[in-house]
Design goal:
The complex is a heterodimer of chains A (186) and B (1166).
Chain A lengths: L1 H20 L4 E14 L4 E14 L4 E7 L9 H11 L7 E8 L9 E13 L2 E14 L2 E11 L18 E12 L2
Antiparallel strand pairs in A: 1-2, 1-8, 2-3, 3-4, 4-5, 5-6, 6-7, 7-8
Chain B lengths: L1 H13 L7 E6 L10 E6 L5 E5 L2 E5 L4 E3 L11 E6 L5 E5 L4 E5 L2 E4 L11 E7 L2 E6 L4 E4 L4 E4 L10 E6 L4 E6 L2 E6 L6 E5 L10 E7 L2 E6 L4 E5 L4 E4 L11 E8 L2 E6 L4 E5 L2 E5 L1 H4 L5 E6 L5 E5 L3 E6 L2 E4 L12 E4 L5 E5 L2 E7 L5 E5 L8 E6 L5 E5 L4 E4 L6 E4 L1 H4 L6 E6 L4 E6 L4 E5 L4 E5 L10 E6 L5 E5 L3 E6 L2 E4 H4 L7 E6 L5 E5 L4 E4 L4 E4 L12 E5 L2 E6 L2 E6 L5 E4 L8 E9 L2 E6 L2 E6 L11 E9 L2 E3 L6 E2 L6 E8 L8 E7 L6 E3 L4 E4 L5 E10 L9 E7 L7 H67 L3 E6 L4 E4 L1 H7 L3 H8 L3 H4 L5 H11 L3 E8 L5 E12 L5 E10 L1 H31 ...
The chains are: A alpha+beta (186), B alpha+beta (1166).
Chain lengths: 186, 1166
């Protein structure tokens, strides 16, 4: 119930942002790439999704990204994917991973260039919210904003429990990388 | 990652092996539960740590913690901020955005009113009595006594996310936010905001912590390490150490001194930068944690870490050991020395080792393998940097500290007097003194050549020498086994031991202090100090914990005596002793294996090398706390903050004190005393409740101090109180008492005086009264005397005879009349007749008379005939009077005799005349009785009848009359006027007249009879008189036996007829017979009543004598009514019985009274 509420809240935030930005400088994408890497002693797992939604409100310096968990693919095996979805991420209950926050530094979105900024916000996955400050590279080129960031996700922080029998195969900290190119909302 | 390790390596290279390593203590169950996250820490004035945890607030004293708000469910949540203001109010901020404050044991919550807050409280601080509250997203709140203000990004704040608030304590605060630092000043009036951010050169806008010191801010940042902001120049100052920072977020930074910074990273440990030396304490290795929440430095410089597992304490230790654990093969360090490179040379039973620091700052031990066969006894650095080792049995080994090349000096090759070398002392750059065990003291040169050997032969006290030392004047002092302490000057030995009569001939070690005094350890004299003139002995009574410290070494004004208990410090100036209580167990220092280098003592012990940092002493002067925890008065809790004046009977005072020394709570000791009650301190190892019982009145101050392991005493905790004196012990009371007493005495004296005066008056009055009474009595006596005189005169002159006798009846006095009458004097009487009344009295009843008079205590009169010698008879009437005193005792008997002979003669004549009269009247009685009808006659005609006739006197005025004529019986009851002789004469007259009327004139109608009787009486008595005084009352009945009728007529006397218990009265005419002449003249008529007798009718006629008889209990008349009742009552009985009842009733009624009248009652029936 709580998680459903959270999902609704997230969607609402995104909707508000989209709505609000529709009259200002809004950059959006629906095909951002999100990768994660688990580098455990016995196994390296990589998976990715190209269905990452993103939005940047330039005047307010706020950002939001979300990705459906079930959209991840590229596991070492089908069984691994099934475990990922059903046992670890419990996608029936927790369908998306969401980060929303604001950009700390001041940058001029009207000028082309590459900027390193930090986005501070909350990252919600597996129904558990955690505050994060993530370093992000923003490249502005011809009214497109490309966002590249990576951050660590400790499984403990989000109550993702890995059975002991496989803890040598799955890392306790997952590296997440996001790359998305956002375009002005028409 | 490569960069990180590079930095770490750089840091470590900068660090020093001998830097005070932080020690770690973990408290993961401080709340009673394991791994309870702690988010915030504060410290109060008593040094308690307040801990904000994930489920409440705990208070921690270093040993135990208490859940302060266990009864407040609203505080069972994550406490994200804690602050204690200068009013001791505890401010509590929660993750849910609530703020509570706790003051005077009362918890309250802050009302945010119009600007509600739901964001986490991140920081609370106070300046100018304004409390500032920082939130994580809702800006800043400011509260004073009046209002609550709110500041946010729209009103000057750099950002609404606040991590920290720092204050200068005057009028500025700095808020660390996500968008730099907001400086706010002019807090009380109109706040002025200044933002310090990237634009001012701040490396990182996300400011996690700010620490103000020395007018600059130490700023801890999210990703850029730390930097300064100079408040004088308003400019950022970068810290070189953080130039290439890549160890993540610094969540707290503390600058304790301008040269010392401690920062806590979020994940990578604590970094201490102290005067260029770096210490890194990784969380994984120290607090078993990867992240922390807050770093807190307490008032003693202890670093506390609030982590998700609990509480961690990081503290600098004064000492370290280099021992087996750090690579020293043999922990038993027998000899120690340091070379010019500050490497440590160690001598053990297994040879010599050298300890150096490697590039990582760790100690590296290298053993001189070729020397392992030597047992090293001592070591010393030569002026050229070589290390000289003394051995047991092998002489001396000289090692070049740089090349490790060795040279041996021994008896065989070099002429040492003995190869057992106990001490090597370089007195100057060329001279060395070698102490041997058995070979005396060798003076040699630093090249190894021997100059001279001093033995007992040369005057040395003993060939067994433990140590030698020269003072600043070049005098050589020698410590020996058996020779005591000697001083050699100009090749002459003087025994200090003998000079000052010391007990012990054994001296183990010596050193000199900065004043050139020599200190030595002896076997039985303790530690002695010789200042060139006198010896001072120090032992346990002076505070030494061990009287035979194995090592002595001085630095500055302190002589350190290193012994089995630890390190005792002797003040060279005043010889006072204190000590460090740092060690958990005993030390086992080895003889003279000690040196001082820079600020450290290096001591060889059986547990390795003790390195003790004396330089930390300045820091450790931070005092522990001590405070009064509670007070009890007469064993009941008492508010220690209230007025401490107690009544005299509230004199059992209990004081509980406690101290806090978070660094090392177990080492805290106390001393206390009650000034006013105790002179000396009382020492104790624990906080406790001290009871002072039965304190006398006075002023007291309880003083307590705590002392930490560094021998630093706390400030004094005090509790002053007064036990009031009882009322009777107060000056004013006695003043009052004296005053009241004086007044009372004065009043008493006044009263007494008054009373005496009054008494005097009374006495005077009484005297006057007595005088008056005496005068009165005298007068009375005089009067009595006069009376007595007169009485005596009377008694003597009277014609009456007076005799006075004593109680026994013995004659005491007779008067002249007695002598004259009896013609005998008293003496003659006593002599010739008798001495008592009983003998002289002619009255045979005299004894009885006397007895009666005495018995009844009253006079008795009697008469007696006294016959004189000449035969004359004299009647004497005597009054015998007994005289009793006040107690009733018979005192006298007085008899007064009166001659009554003449009266007796007169009485005799009268008695004779009375007899004659009585005889006459008795004869008249016979005559009167003779005229009364015969009873037989009446019984013949009236068989059922009775006549009760009782005369008052001899003759009677009443009479009854009867006759039977013409078949009728006539009977009358007549009461003549008067009684006695007059009545009797009247009855004779009446009798004659009645006979004449009835028997002669044959008049039988009762009314006619009465008519004639009246006339006859008047005719007889009052012929010529109009008034008559005498007459008679009469009831007369004529009983007609044939006709069975009774005709009645009465003059004043009625007829009663009783039948069946009912009485009917036929009233008489109210005409007395013979009383008035008018009745004769007017032809008065009497009435005849004819009664036809019924069966059972009883008739009664009677005179008034019966009813008029006085008697009964009240001496009343019997009355007609009673008489009627009497006759009715007995009317059914025979007439003779009725007569008896009438008699009996009359006698009972009359009893002892006299009969008042003649009585006549006649009853009959037909």
């Amino acid at each position: 119930m709580k998680n459903t509420k959270m999902m609704r809240k997230t969607i609402l935030v995104l909707a508000v942002i989209f709505t609000k930005l529709s009259i200002g400088q809004i950059y959006i994408c629906k095909d951002g790439n999100t990768k994660f890497t688990s580098e455990a002693p016995l196994e390296l797992i990589k998976a990715q999704s190209n269905k990452t939604n993103g939005v940047i409100d330039v005047p307010n310096k706020t950002v939001a990204f979300s990705v459906a968990i079930e959209s991840f693919d590229g596991f070492n095996s089908g069984l691994q994917k099934e475990h990922f979805r059903e046992n670890y991420m419990e996608t029936t209950k927790y369908k998306t991973a969401v980060f929303k926050g604001k950009i700390i530094e001041d940058i001029d979105f009207s000028k082309n260039g590459t900027y390193t900024v930090r986005a501070k916000g909350t990252f919600n996955i597996h129904g558990t919210e955690k505050e994060k400050i993530v370093k992000t590279k923003i490249t502005i080129r011809d009214k497109e904003i490309t966002v590249e960031t990576s951050f660590e996700v400790p499984l403990d922080d989000h109550n993702i429990n890995i059975p002991k029998v496989v803890n040598q195969k799955i890392a306790s900290i997952i590296m997440v990388e996001v790359k998305a190119t956002l375009k002005p909302k028409v | 990652m490569i960069k990180r390790y590079f930095i770490l390596t750089t840091l470590i290279i900068c660090s020093s092996l001998l830097y005070a390593q932080l020690q770690v203590r973990n408290y993961f169950s401080i709340t009673g539960k394991k791994d309870v996250a702690i988010y915030s820490i504060a410290q109060d004035a008593n040094s308690y740590l307040w801990l904000g945890t994930k489920d409440g607030v705990y208070k921690y004293d270093g040993k135990t913690s208490v859940d302060v708000f266990k009864d407040y469910p609203q505080l069972k949540q994550e406490i994200s901020a804690l602050f204690i203001d200068h009013h001791k109010t505890v401010w509590i901020g929660t993750k849910s955005g609530k703020v509570f404050f706790y003051k005077n044991n009362k918890l309250d919550s802050l009302n945010f009113a119009k600007i509600p807050n739901e964001e986490k409280i991140t920081a609370i601080c106070e300046v100018n009595s304004i409390v500032f509250i920082g939130t994580y997203g809702n800006g800043l709140y400011a509260i004073n006594d009046i209002e609550l203000k709110h500041y946010d990004a729209e009103h000057g704040l750099s950002d609404n996310v606040i991590y920290t608030i720092e204050t200068d304590g005057k009028d500025k605060i700095w808020c660390g936010t996500d968008a730099g630092i907001t400086q706010i000043k002019n807090l009380n009036a109109r706040p002025y905001f200044t933002i310090i951010s990237n634009k001012q050169g701040l490396p990182d806008n996300i400011t996690r912590d700010i620490c103000l010191n020395d007018n600059r801010l130490l700023i801890s940042m999210q990703d850029s390490g730390a930097c300064y902001y100079n408040l004088n120049t308003n400019s950022i100052e970068r810290i070189p150490f953080f130039a290439n920072w890549n160890l993540g977020t610094i969540i707290n930074g503390v600058e304790e001194t301008p040269k010392k910074i401690t920062v806590a990273t979020e994940k990578n440990g604590i970094i201490v930068i102290d005067n260029g030396k770096i210490g890194i304490y990784k969380y994984e290795e120290t607090i078993q944690n990867s992240t922390i929440n807050q770093l807190f430095v307490d008032n003693a410089g202890q670093v506390w870490v609030a982590s998700k597992k609990g509480l961690n304490q990081l503290y600098a230790r004064r000492y370290d050991f280099i021992n087996n654990a750090t690579g020293v093969a043999d922990d038993k360090i027998l000899a120690l020395a340091t070379d010019n490179d500050h490497s440590i040379w160690i001598g053990t039973a297994m040879g010599i080792s050298k300890v150096m620091e490697n590039d990582e700052g760790k100690s590296v031990v290298s053993k001189i393998q070729e020397l392992t066969k030597y047992t090293i006894s001592c070591a010393s650095k030569a002026p050229n940097g070589d290390i000289w080792f003394g051995t047991y049995g092998s002489g001396i080994i000289i090692i070049n500290s740089e090349t490790n090349k060795t040279v041996l000096i021994n008896s065989k090759a070099n002429g040492l007097s003995n190869d057992n070398v106990s001490h090597i002392y370089f007195s100057d750059k060329n001279t060395v003194y070698i102490s041997t065990l058995g070979g005396g003291l060798i003076k040699a040169h630093t090249d190894g050549s021997i100059e001279k050997t001093y033995t007992e032969t040369e005057g040395l006290g003993s060939n067994y020498v433990y140590a030698s030392l020269t003072d600043n004047n070049g005098k050589l002092y020698i410590a020996m086994d058996g020779g005591g302490l000697q001083v050699m000057e100009n090749a002459t030995f003087t025994s200090i031991t003998q000079k000052f009569n010391l007990n012990s001939n054994t001296v183990f070690s010596i050193c000199k202090d900065k004043n050139n005094a020599i200190w030595a350890t002896t076997a039985s004299d303790g530690v002695i100090k010789y200042d060139g003139k006198a010896i001072t002995k120090l032992n346990m009574s002076n505070g030494l914990r061990d009287e035979q410290p194995q090592q002595l070494i001085s630095s500055g004004n302190i002589v350190y005596a290193i012994n089995s208990k630890g390190i005792d410090k002797i003040n060279c100036t005043d010889n006072t002793v204190s000590y460090y209580d740092l060690f958990d167990g005993d030390l086992e220092p080895n003889l003279n294996a000690v040196f001082f280098n820079q600020d450290k003592i290096y001591s060889g012990t059986n547990n390795g090398i003790l390195i003790f940092r004396t330089s930390l002493e300045s820091k450790d002067t931070v005092k522990p706390s001590v405070f009064i925890r509670s007070i009890q008065v007469n064993y009941k809790p008492f508010n220690k903050d209230s007025v401490s004046e107690f009544k005299y009977n509230q004199n059992n005072i209990s004081i509980e004190f406690a101290g806090i020394w978070l660094k090392n709570p177990d080492k805290l000791t106390y001393r206390h005393k009650l000034i006013g009650h105790e002179e000396k301190w009382v020492y104790t190892n624990e906080s406790k409740l001290i009871n002072y019982n039965n304190l006398s009145s006075g002023n007291y101050t309880f003083v307590v101090q705590s002392k930490n392991e560094e021998d630093v005493w706390s400030n004094e905790g005090m509790y002053a109180f007064t036990i009031l004196r009882p009322l009777w012990q107060r000056w004013w009371f006695w003043g009052l008492v004296i005053g009241i007493g004086g007044l009372s005495i004065y009043a008493f004296l006044r009263y007494r005086l008054k009373a005496l005066q009054k008494e005097n008056l009374l006495l005077e009055q009484r005297v006057n009264e007595r005088t008056f009474e005496i005068e009165k009595q005298s007068k009375i006596i005089e009067d009595k005397n006069a009376a007595l005189e007169q009485l005596s005169l009377v008694a003597s002159r009277t014609d009456n005879v007076v005799l006075i006798m004593d109680a026994e009846g013995r004659l005491e006095y007779v008067n002249e009349s007695f002598v004259r009458l009896n013609r005998i004097t008293l003496d003659e009487l006593k002599r010739n007749v008798g001495e008592t009344i009983f003998e002289i009295s002619n009255n045979p009843e005299i004894k009885t008379i006397v007895a009666e008079a005495v018995y009844h205590k009253k006079s008795v009169n009697y008469e007696a005939l006294n016959r004189l010698d000449d035969g004359t008879e004299i009647w004497e009437s005597s009054t015998l009077t007994p005289i009793f005193d006040e107690e009733g005792t018979l005192k006298k008997i007085i008899i007064i005799d009166t001659n009554v002979t003449e009266r007796k003669k007169d009485e005799q004549i009268i008695r004779q005349k009375n007899k004659d009269i009585t005889d006459s009247i008795s004869y008249a009685r016979k005559i009167q009785h003779a005229i009364l009808p015969q009873d037989d006659l009446i019984k013949t005609h009236l068989p059922h009848s009775f006549v009760l006739y009782m005369t008052k006197d001899i003759v009677s005025g009443d009479f009854y009359w009867f006759t039977h004529i013409n078949g009728s019986s006539i009977i009358a009851a007549v009461d003549c006027t008067g009684h006695g002789v007059p009545g009797a004469f009247m009855s004779l007259i009446g009798y004659n007249i009645l006979n004449k009327i009835v028997n002669e004139q044959k008049i039988t109608d009762p009314k006619d009879i009465l008519f004639e009787l009246n006339n006859g009486i008047l005719e007889a008595l009052y012929k010529n008189e109009s008034e008559s005084k005498d007459g008679m009352d009469i009831a007369i009945c004529k009983i007609n036996h044939k006709e069975n009728t009774v005709d009645y007529a009465g003059a004043m006397r009625p007829l009663w007829i009783i039948n069946n218990q009912e009485l009917r009265e036929i009233k008489a005419d109210k005409i007395p017979i013979g009383t008035t002449a008018e009745s004769r003249d007017s032809g008065i008529q009497f009435t005849t009543h004819t009664i036809h007798a019924s069966k059972g009718d009883s008739f009664y006629i009677f005179t008034d004598g019966y009813a008029d008889q006085f008697g009964g209990e009240k001496n009343k008349k019997y009355s007609t009514a009673k008489f009627k009742e009497l006759l009715i009552k007995h009317s059914n009985q025979p007439f003779h019985t009725q007569e008896q009842h009438c008699k009996q009733e009359h006698h009972q009624w009359k009893h002892n009274f006299e009969q008042v009248d003649d009585i006549l009652v006649i009853g009959f029936t037909l």
